[in-house]
C-alpha cells in the first residue's frame, strides 16, 4: 500500500501556456508537478507490481494453416497440428488446449499414446517430441532430433513403446518412447527391396503392423513398392512393385488383405496369399470413355478401409475425381457396399480420420464418424445414418467465416444481456445436423468460481457482426448481425462502393457498444455509421439516413484570423441543421466538370422493412463524395445513450449528431475547432495546383444552419486509395499512422462525459472530449434538455471550445476518476424496448443513470481527475483547473498502439500495448510503472488492429487470421488459471481385447508371443549411431510431471509416476542381475574348458 498526497491547484487559473500541459511540467515516470494550492486530496493506491503477471490463457478459433490430425479413441480427444508449430487439443466443450513448439517448425504428423495421456509430434525440422498431457498445460518430456535423415512418416502400434519412423532415404528407424532413444535396429531400404532392383524406392510414405501378426511391418515406398518386413528374422516376406505411386495403405482387420491408394486415382486390393498382382483394381470416379480408355483422375491422397459387423465395410477416401471437371470442389467419398456418396467440401482437405469403436486393429472396426480437417474448417460426419449428416460443431471454428477486421472485449457485462442475445440468436441457427452427441467428448471441465459475464464482439469484412459469450474462458456465438441489410444491393454498373473499395464495401472498422442501454454503433469502411437499438420484438421500420459533407481543399480553409469574429459553433439550437433525408442522387450525377459530388458511397433502403428481433437499424450516417473525391474513413467514434448524441471524426474534421431528433448538430473542420486558440502555426497547402479548378467547392457559413461545412486537408485520388488501404489494416485509433504520418490532423479519439468545459465552471456539465493526431485535447461543453418531452423537441446547444491541453503524440484514450481515484463511468440510459406494447396507465419514461463527479466529492469538494494517454505519454489533469498533476513518458523509441483504463484487483490502472511488443501497466493517478513485459512484437498490422484490454486484467488480439488469443496481466487470474482450464486426461480403463477363440488363436500366428523389447532393446540390437539422432530432454520431464500432476487425476498420476519409477528401478536391477548371472555362467564355462584342456595335456 502506498499513499500519495499531492497539493492541488483548484482555485487559480493558469495562463494559456500553462494549460497546454507542456512537457516542462514533468518528464520522469509519474513525476508530480508543483502547483501551490490551499487544499489537498488523498488517493490511496492499492496496486503494486505483485498484482501483475502476464500469461496466455486460452486460444479460440480454427487452427491457422492446419497440417496434421490425430484422435485418441479411448480418451476421445482430438489433436490438430499447424504449419507454425502449434498443436490444438480438443475434447468436450470447455476442454481446449493450445501448445506451441519452440522451434516453430510445421507439424508433419501426430500420434497419440492411446489412453496414456501423451502425444508424439513429428515436425518439419526432423525432430520428434513427446508431450505430457496429464497436466492442464501440456509440456514436452523428450525430444529427438534427427541429424542425417528427414522424417516422412511415423507409426506407433497400440500399447507399444516402440515408435517406427520412416525417412526420406527410405530407411525405417525405431525409437523407444519411454527413453526417447534410438534403437540399433534399422530396416535399411536396400535390405527391404530386392538386390536386383536398380532404382531407389523413394521415401517411406506408410508404416503399419499387420493386424494378424505384430511381428510383420508393412512398409510403403512412394514409388509404388510395398514390402512386408519380418521383424524377427530381419528379412522381407514379400515385395510388391506397382507402376503407380502410393499415397496410403489401409488394412482389413483380419490382416489377410490390404488396400492402396495411388496417384492415378485408383484403389488396388492385395491378398497376402498372392502378391504378384492386385486381385482388384478400381477407379471409383474414372469413367470409360468412348475409345474404351479410362479417363484420367486426380490422386487419391488417403484411403481408410474399415469393417463392420452387420454390413459391408466402409471405404473412405479423399481425391480421385476426374481431371475434366474443372472447378469442382474438394471431395470426400464414402463407399459402403454398392452405395457411393460424394461429399463436397468448401475448402481443400488436409487430413481425415475415421473414428472407430475399438483401438485394436485386429478387431472389427465399426466406424461411427469421420473427422475431416479442411484448410479452414473442421467437420465431423455421422456414418451411422445413411444420409451422412454432419455433427453441429460446439467449438467456435467459424470466427474467420469472413475475415475479422476489428474486435471489442467487454468484461463484467450486465448478467441479463447474454441470455437475451443467445435466445435471439438461437432462432437463426442452422438445422439438419446429426441428432447424436458430439463424438469428441474427452477430458473434464467445470465452471470455475472466478467467472463473470464477458462478451467479445468481432466485426468482419462482409459487414457482419458477431457477439460471443466469452465467460469462463470459453467462447460460444450468441448472435450475428448483418449490417449490409441496411443498404440496397449495388446494381450492375453502379459500382459507387466499388470505386471506393474494390471488395467488401460493408467491412466493419470499429464498433461502439453500451451494454446497459444496448445502443450499438458500427463504423464501416465506406465512411458510414449505423446506429442500432435492441428489441425483443420484430417491427416494421424505415431507416433514417443522414448525409454529412466533411471534405474540402486546404487552399480554401478559412484562417482563424479571418474567422475570428464569427461564431465557431451553433449558439442557438433553433438553427440546427435539418437531416438530409432525401435519397441520394444516382451514381451518374456529377458536377459540370464530370466529377461525383454530394453522393454517399452506399444507398440506404428507402422503404419500410420488416426487421426481426435483435438489433434493428435506426439511423445511418454517411459521409459524401466531394468534387469527385471519396470521403475519408472515420477514425473515431463515441455514442452516449444518456445524452442521445453521437460524435465521429476523421482526418478532415468532427461531426456531432443528435440521434434522438435525427439532426446534425455540428460539422466542422479540425482547424476550426480551435478558433483563435490554435497552438500550431499552420501554413495552408495546395497539393493539387495542377488539377482543374472546380466551381463546386465554395465554403461559407450557411445562414440557415450556422454550420461550417469546411475541412482542412485534401487527398489526391492515389493517396486516398492508399490511405484507405492502410487504414483498413490499422488499429481502432489512427495511432498506427505514426509509421506513415503525414501533416494532416485527424480526430483520433472522442469521449462524452460529465466534466468541466472551462476553468471557471462550478458544476460539471455534459462535455465532449476531443483528441487529435497532433496531441491536442479539446473540451466542448454542451447544453442538453433534461425533461423527456423537451429533449425530443428542444435543440441541444454546443458551446465554444473550452480547454486546450497538449501531449506528445496522437491522443488514444480519455478516462475520468473522482478525487478518491475511483473510476467515473459515462452516464447512460437504462434499456427499454422501443417496440414493446404501450401501457396507457404507465407511460414509458427514459431512466438515466448519471455518475457526476460532484456526487462523490464530499471530502475534497468539486472536481475530478482526467487521465489522458497518447502514443508516447500519459498525463493526469485536475478538472476544472486543468492543472497537470502527473506525467509519464511511456516510450521514446516506440509508440503506444492501444491504451485503456481498466479495473484490476478492486482498483484501476492504465494498461498500454506498444508497437515494440511491450505490455505495460501504470498506477492511477500517480502513473507509477507497475508492469513492463516484452510480450509480443508487432509482426503484422492484424495485432495492432485487434488488440484490446478489458476489466479484470484481461486482453485479447487476433493471433492469426482465424484465431483469437486471450491473455491476462493479473496475478490473481494467473493463480486461478489452473482451476479454470479443463483436464485433458481422465483415468479410463483400456477396453479389453475381444476373445479370439481357441482356433483363431491357434491358427492365427504367433502375434501374442511377439516381444519388441527382445528385438529392439540395446541387448539385442545394440546402440544406434550417436550422429544419427540427438536426444534433448524436455523441460516438462519427470520432475515437471510431479509438480504439474494436480487436480482430479493428480493422485493417480503421482501414483503412476511412482510405479513407473519403481518399475524402472526394478527393471534396472533385474537387468544387472541377469548380466551378472550371464557373466558368471560365461566365467564358469571358460574355467571348465581350461580345466579340461589341462587334463588332456597331462
UniProtKB/TrEMBL annotation:
It is found in: Cell membrane; Cytoplasm. The keyword Membrane applies. Residues 10-36, 572-581, 728-738 have a biased composition (Low complexity). One of its GO terms (cellular component) is SNARE complex. Keywords: Cell membrane, Coiled coil, Cytoplasm, Exocytosis, Membrane, Protein transport, Repeat, Transport, WD repeat. It holds the Pfam family LLGL. Residues 1037-1097 form the V-SNARE coiled-coil homology domain. GO terms for molecular function: GTPase activator activity; myosin II binding; syntaxin binding. PROSITE patterns: V_SNARE. It comes from the Eukaryota. It is a peripheral membrane protein. One of its GO terms (biological process) is protein transport. Gene3D superfamilies: 1.20.5.110, YVTN repeat-like/Quinoprotein amine dehydrogenase (2.130.10.10). The keyword Membrane applies. Residues 1-36, 558-597, 718-740, 831-860 are annotated as: Disordered. InterPro entries: Lethal2_giant, LLGL2, V_SNARE_CC, WD40/YVTN_repeat-like_dom_sf, WD40_repeat_dom_sf, WD40_rpt. Residues 560-571 have a biased composition (Polar residues). Belongs to the WD repeat L(2)GL family. This is Syntaxin-binding protein 5-like.
